[in-house]
């Protein structure tokens, strides 16, 4: 998948949440969602210049979270919010077994394995160590709970690895794999962190899931035995 395709994929999630969650009156009266991050301020030409630069400063610029959320009643609960989207699950049995064998869940299978770029994960972790609250809202098309959200220090890391990507430079992009089942659903996050009732947020989240599953369905890799063209 190209950079542009990944951006569009995530933007679909951002736009859906903006329309179907953050601007809903019951949410808006308590929470303010404000655009932030590199996708909103970093020109494409500049991104191309620094794309393969690995300094901590550039990493922070490139992976600055997409938004921040302010709790109008308890401003101290303000946190940065990053959006992630995954449509294509792992398919290599050897890779899945390797991830499981090096993790607390040796039996884990592809349905529960999430994947993010390691540099992004490391940037959010570094921010958390500074006392900065960073939450990740992750849409994963192949997971039984496709819409999850939690703080970066709650992520259960399974494995980190080097995966060859189809870039023009032939570079190798490091990834981390994590346990999707350890993250809270978006409903749970909103009720736990902001005091909404399940009755208030469950219908909203159900509609969001349905919309995203239509817009961003599972896309198995062509080499996967589950690929159907």
Tally of DSSP helical segments? 9
Task: Kindly name the structural category.
Answer: alpha+beta
Strand content: 15-25%
* Approximate helicity band: 25-40%
Task: Write down the overall mean pLDDT.
Answer: 91
Number of E-type strands:
8
N- to C-terminal distance: 16 Å
Unreliable parts: 165-170
Globally, the shape reads: globular
H and E order: HHEHHHEEHEHEEEEHH
Main sheet properties: 5 strands, mixed
Instruction: Walk across the major sheet and give the strand order.
Output: 1-2-3-5-6
Radius of gyration: 18 Å
Tell me what you see in this structure:
The chain is α+β, with helices and mostly antiparallel strands. The chain has a domain at 3-88 and 116-154 and 181-215. The protein is built from nine helices and eight strands. Strand 7 and strand 8 (172-179) form a beta hairpin. Helix 1 (3-22) runs antiparallel to helix 9 (198-215). The radius of gyration is 18 Å and the shape is globular.
């Amino acid at each position: 998948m190209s950079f542009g395709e990944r951006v569009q994929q995530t933007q679909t999630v951002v736009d859906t949440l903006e329309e179907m969650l953050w601007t809903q009156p019951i949410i808006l009266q308590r929470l303010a969602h404000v655009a932030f991050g590199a996708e909103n301020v970093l020109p494409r030409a500049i991104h191309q210049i620094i794309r393969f630069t690995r300094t901590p400063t550039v990493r922070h610029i490139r992976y600055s979270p997409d938004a921040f959320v302010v709790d109008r009643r308890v401003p101290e609960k303000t946190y940065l919010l990053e959006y992630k989207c995954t449509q294509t699950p792992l398919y290599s049995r050897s890779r899945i077994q390797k991830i499981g064998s090096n993790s607390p869940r040796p039996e884990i299978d592809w349905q529960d394995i999430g994947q993010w770029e390691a540099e992004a994960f490391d940037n959010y972790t570094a921010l958390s160590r500074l006392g900065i609250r960073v939450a990740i809202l992750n849409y994963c098309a192949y997971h039984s709970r496709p819409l999850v959200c939690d703080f970066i220090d709650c992520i259960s890391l399974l494995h980190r690895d080097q995966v060859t990507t189809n870039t023009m430079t032939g570079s190798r992009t490091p990834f981390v794999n994590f346990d999707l089942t350890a993250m809270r659903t978006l409903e749970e996050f909103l009720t736990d962190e902001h005091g909404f009732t399940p009755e208030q947020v469950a219908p909203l989240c159900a509609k969001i899931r349905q919309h995203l599953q239509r817009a961003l369905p599972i896309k198995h890799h062509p080499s996967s035995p589950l690929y159907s063209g």
